[in-house]
Specification:
about 90% helix, mainly alpha, about 50 residues, 2 helices, about 0% strand
Length: about 50
């Protein structure tokens, strides 16, 4: 669930920047990528604990 939320939040923030600053589609793309990287970092931390 956390992985999905990370990507959605990142994409949502990017979308908001797209609408506000007119960067479409780059804000959403970069936000989605950063959200994905945050999700992978979370997975890495969980795997290190085991």
């Amino acid at each position: 669930m956390g992985m999905v939320m990370s990507v959605l939040v990142g994409g949502g923030i990017g979308y908001g920047l797209d609408v506000w600053l007119g960067w479409a589609p780059w804000g959403m793309v970069v936000g989605g990528v950063l959200g994905f990287l945050a999700a992978m970092r979370q997975v890495w931390k969980v795997m290190q604990k085991k």
